[in-house]
Amino acid sequence: MPPVSHRLDARARQLLRSLVHQYIAHGEPVGSRTLARQSGLDVSAATIRNIMADLEELGLVAAPHTSAGRIPTSHGYRVFIDSLIELPAPDPGLLRQLAGQLPQGQGTAGLLAGVTELLSSMSQSVGVITVPKRAAFAFRHIEFVPIDGQRVLVVLVFMDHEVQNRIIQTRRPYSPDELEQTANYLNRHYAGRTWPEIRAALLAELKATRSELERTLSAAIELSEQAMPEAGEDMLVAGQTRLMGNPDLADLERLRGLFDAFAAKRELLGLLERCARAQGLRVFIGEESGLAPLGDCAVVTAPYAVNGRVLGVLGVIGPTRMAYEQVIPMVQATAELVGLALKDATPAP
Hints:
Blueprint: H1 10-26, H2 32-38, H3 45-57, E1 61-62, E2 71-72, H4 74-84, H5 92-101, H6 107-123, E3 126-130, E4 139-148, E5 151-158, E6 163-169, H7 176-190, H8 195-208, H9 213-227, E7 235-238, H10 252-264, H11 266-277, E8 282-285, E9 297-306, E10 309-319, H12 324-341
Antiparallel strand pairs: 1-2, 3-7, 3-10, 4-5, 5-6, 8-9, 9-10
Helix pairs in contact: 1-3, 1-4, 2-3, 5-12, 6-12, 7-9, 8-9
């Protein structure tokens, strides 16, 4: 059987599009008279009622028991997004507006936190973003500072201006001269590369060499392995309280479940990681996300990437009555800007 959208004639498609627009704008069930005025079709109210009955039979619209008007169902929203939505052409003005609101000079952590807040404020929903692993970023400078015995302080500066300090326990004591020599070697030969690249190159170099460098390379391998950046925040969420006053999410039990999902993060992170493995923008309507707490929500996500390598995913979570024609371009543009902002800190693979 062909998809539902292929079974709709031009009038049905136009009426469904008009109904979705009206419902998103006003939040009230849409009646036949309103559709007759707003759809641009030269048909009678009776004809519109007949088409609405057909759309209801197909599961694309529903009639709440308190009103004679109709509202789109999750299936109706899916058909709208897949085949009826009219997205505006890329707007350089939107890119400039978003770029002007991104935080500057705060490193990746500040950038991503600012992006999450920006997504939330512009959509009046919840902004989410997954945080790239530190191993994806190139390092700028490293220092090893002896503490006592076999404990060493590692000071690691990345190309995105983030700084990490770690105390590591080494397998043997290292003298201050050894630590300085090892740091100098790493800074001289490997600055601008990521830790996985550095480790692979050091192992290859050690295998090939039989010179006085062997001791330095062995030290560099041990110290750099332990200096590997630790995992930090895996995702950021902003704007949850914006959902509390939304009339489309007024059920307190559902809202509590939604807030619990934001707090736990695990299932939500799994959804975003699946989006990272997919291509391009994704939109989930209601139960399509596979997460029960998001049953009354829509999720719009886009991956952000550098040199074709996906680093993470960002997006918006809000009620299904979402202004998709504004939110989708905004999410896509923000993902593009984040990739550009991180370009200098993440070398090409």
